[in-house]
Amino acid sequence: MLINISCFNCKLAKGRTVPGGGNTQPKLIVVSDYPGSAETKERKPLIGKSGQLLRKALKNVVGLDPDLDVFYTNVLKCEPAGNPVTDRELQQCKPWLNKELNLVSCKYILVAGSQAKKILLPQVTEEVSKIHGQIFQDQLRGYKMLVTWNPAYIEQFSAFDDKGNRLIQTGSVPWMFMNDMKKLKGLLNGT
Predict the structure, then answer these.
(1) Is the pLDDT of residue 4 over 60?
(2) Residue 37: is it exposed, middle or buried by C-beta count within 10 angstroms (0-12/13-18/19+)?
(3) N or C: which end of the chain has fewer CB within 10 A?
């Protein structure tokens, strides 16, 4: 299910808004930074190349059905079109994210990226690279949030063998991301 939103708060919105979507009673909410071109075209969150990487990790490492067990959304509802994301744009989209979180019944959030961290954990000043894999508790709403990188960032640091298989070298960003997914599995399983 997509949560229907219409937004005209900034110049990005002009018919390009990508609402959150997925199960509204999921086991996990994924909040990423912003949609890419594939998401903008289809108006569905996290379906592009990097979104598929995340979905595979959720399935193969965490053990979730990425289509049935997860609600996906972004803090910025429109692709920034190559421009750096501004704090004003994030603040203009924040009410839509809050509306989605209020409509979705779940207490576990994967915070995927620096913009998502900035909105969901404004008191945390460290970069994602310093706090990835850590779990934070939202005292107001009761969410348990695990921080990791935006899947597009993981894609940038991926290496492949000559057959196109992804190589995951110890200590690399993709390796640390996979460890974060293992921690997410433990969080969801209560271990």
Answers:
(1) no
(2) exposed
(3) C
Q: What integer pLDDT is reported at residue 80 of this predicted model?
A: 79
Strands, E assignment, 47-141: 70-74, 108-112, 135-137
Do 120 and 41 form a contact (C-beta atoms < 8 A)?
Answer: no
CB atoms within 10 A of CB 118: 18
Scanning the structure block, which residue is given the tokens 């390796």?
Answer: 175
Q: Which spans in the chain are helix H?
A: 37-42, 49-57, 87-103, 114-120, 128-131, 151-156, 173-189
pLDDT tens for each residue of 88-131: 888 888 988 999 999 999 999 999 999 999 999 999 999 999 99
Q: Is the pLDDT of residue 57 over 90?
A: yes
Residue with tokens 């990005």: 12
